[in-house]
Amino acid sequence: MSCQNGCSTDKTHNTEKPTGCGSQGSCATDSCNKLSVFDWLSDMRLPQGEKPFDIVEVRFKNARKEFFKNTGSQPFYVGDVVAVEAQSGHDIGVVSLSGELVRIQLKRKEIAYNSPEIKKIYRKARPADIDKWREAQALETETMYKARTLAITHGLDMKISDVEYQGDKSKAVFYYTADARVDFRELIKSMATQFSIRIEMKQIGARQEAARLGGIGSCGRELCCSTWLTDFRAVNTSAARYQQLSLNPLKLAGQCGKLKCCLNYELDSYLDAIKDFPQADNLKLGTKKGRAFHQKTDIFKRQMWFSYEGHMDVFIPLTVDRVKQIIEWNKQGIYPEELAEETQQKVAPKPMKHPDFEQPLGGNINRFDKKRKNNNHNRRPQQQGQRRNNPQKRNDKK
User: Fold this and answer.
1) With b meaning 16 or more CB within 10 Å and e meaning fewer, what string describes 234-244?
2) pTM of the predicted model as reported, rounded to 2 decimal places
């Protein structure tokens, strides 16, 4: 469910509110936010006597979402800014989901109703809580740059990609990527001294880093990992081979440097379609004209291209049934004359007749093609003849 009015933020007056959103960023669809959710059960009424589900989903910075239990009697709706329990102190977040759909989400993520992971939700955030939360968010970019400088000073091979402050401004989580294990104990001491907060370091992968930062993919749309994709499955080069894609890392790699997640989207369709194909690896067909090697395959057209030895630049298309037939013949020691089936006698195409267009309204359009006579050229001999036949005018001139 996308917003139709646009969600560009207005930073001219430090309001950070969407300029085109009529509900000022607190709409029921939650579409101004990353990984937004549309509650398709919001219009359904509960049976008489049933109480609403007392667990809500709260969204924090980027794609981090957690579940919190509503122990009080105050109801919470999508878009409410709330104060929730944290490991120490409290945090500020936005309700992203409530009602019966949260029960389905808990079941899908295999989280028990009485799990200790589910903390309490205190209340709706007060204006003082929101102001402190905004101040903490304003410090995140500057803190990230200073932390990167400290990491370089300590000679650590790591990249700090994002910083998230807790709502009460007492703690900050630093997200970093690294190829190997990093000993950042001295770095934590330096950051705690400089920032005067509690520090937590959290290592993430390259795909999680791209999801947090966001961007535009080669398809022209926002990255799937930063908009709707929540689980990152392994992507192998075999997915590209099954789809007959060239193994070009510049085209197959995403902004995270790994293989694109979209290579897995249509993989099942290709695997189902290729079951009826013969094994294409090192596939050779024997004919009386010579051996032919497999070049490429069009799965959905059910065609395979082969080339003869010495003529590798000439591709001959064959159907899957024809390839299977030649393979069976080769196993029996039978070799056909050519790869393609016997061609039928070709009928020479008839010459195309030019249509005889009818003249519009009986008119003759060829009259415009006649050359126009030169009147000046025709007048001169006539004038000379008149002078010859009129000797009186010649005497007058003399």
Assistant:
1) ebeeebbebee
2) 0.66
